[in-house]
Amino acid sequence: MLERIITALVLVAVVLSCMFATHSHYPMYTLMMVAAGVAGYEWYKLMPKQTSNVIKPIAWGFGLITAGLSALALRYSDFALLLWTASIFTWILSVYWVKSYPDYDAWYNNSLKFIGLILVSATVTAIFSVWQSSPWWLMYLFLLVWGADSGAYFVGRKFGKKKLAPDVSPNKSVEGLYGGIATAMIIVIVVEVLYLNLSLAEHILFLILSVVTVFSSVLGDLFESMIKRRAGIKDSGRILPGHGGVLDRIDSLLAAAPIFAAGMYVLKLIGVDL
Question: Whole-model pTM?
Answer without folding.
Answer: 0.94
